[in-house]
Amino acid sequence: MNIIFRIDQYLPETNQIVVQICKETSRNSIFSHRKIAINCETLDLYDAESFSYSLSAKYGSNIVSEENRNEPILDDNKNSEIIKGDLNLEKLVGKVISGKVYEKGTRLLKMRKVHL
Amino acid sequence: MNFVRYHKKCESWIACGAKGDKGAINFDYGYERKTIYQYATKGLVKISKLFSSKSKTFGSGYLINVKEFYKHNVVYEFLEDTDVWGFNPLHEEDWDGKIVDNTFKAEGQSVLVCLDGNPIVNSITLSRYDYDELTDGKTYNIIPNDGVLALFTKI
Questions:
Q1: Residue of A nearest to B126 (CA)
Q2: Which end of chain A is more exposed for a tag (fewer CB within 10 A), N or C?
């Protein structure tokens, strides 16, 4: 996933930049994204590549996650079902099922609810 | 060395797990560390508060109260190939946890989890990580059958 960012202002007196960040594949223009102030002391200013890398690494993931959360859901994708319990593939054919993407390295723990 | 985390949101609580090879080291950030009880189904693990002498080492068969590590940065070291399971409250509430091997009557909000083996509860044979949200006042007849059952009750 690539992000893009646009520096709207540089404020040398406070050593801050005001930037707009979004994912490259955003459905909205970079110019329409909210502006956030970033303290340059939190970034790697060794050279331009380091600056770009550190800004992307530090803020990119949250920005992309936030943008994904706020994107409207297409009508066809609404009303997905959360499935639980015993698996019956035949009964699931044709249904739209909701899944969750966990952070890398995290998997679903197979707990099973029983009625005692 | 392999290290894998597991996670499952249940109705009133969250189950988590970690599986690691001997020698694997990993950590929980304080903001995500909500585990208050842990149980190793296999192996031996040491957990420590970061930059602190506070640590606990536990192996299979013991339900360990780890509330002192709640919301702290925690480091794990797997001293053997280890599977560890954890109980996390859904919100900030406190729960009491204990191993049960006798018939009991549920009190208040509680959860029964099979952590190992095939214990029999109310004539139903359970497998590892089967659970139920218990009914207040209902009696649960237990035949341990060499299995391990943990009862968690909201305080």
A1: A114
A2: N
Residue B51, CA atoms < 13 Å, CB-side half-sphere? 3
The A residues from 89 to 108 touching B (CB cutoff 8 Å) are 102, 105-108
What is the C-alpha to C-alpha distance for residues A17 and A43, in angstroms, rounded to an integer? 11
Token pair for B77:
């070291």
CATH placement of domain B3-89: 2.60.120.10
B132 touches chain A (CB under 8 A): yes
Confidence of residue B131 (pLDDT cuts 50, 70, 90): very high
Q: Which two tokens stand for residue B5?
A: 């985390």
Domain chopping of chain A, boundaries: 3-70
Distance separating alpha carbons of residues B24 and B114, to the nearest angstrom: 26
In chain B, list all ranges with CATH 2.60.120.10: 3-89, 95-154
| Per-residue model confidence as pLDDT tens digits over B23-41 | 999 889 998 899 999 999 9
Q: Which chain A residues are within 8 Å of B140, Cβ to Cβ? A: 116
Asked if B10's CB is within 8 angstroms of A116's CB, the reply is no
Average pLDDT in the B90-113 region?
Answer: 94
CA A75 to chain CA centroid, Å, is 21
C-alpha distance from B47 to closest chain A C-alpha (Å): 19
What Å distances lie between residue B152 and A22, A34, B92, B108, B145, CA to CA?
44, 45, 15, 10, 20
A1 at B interface, C-beta within 8 A: no
> A113 — contact with chain B (CB < 8 Å)?
yes
| B95-154 classified as CATH 2.30.30.240 | no
What is the tens place of the pLDDT at every residue in B37-74? 999 999 999 999 999 888 999 998 899 999 999 999 99
pLDDT value for B49: 94
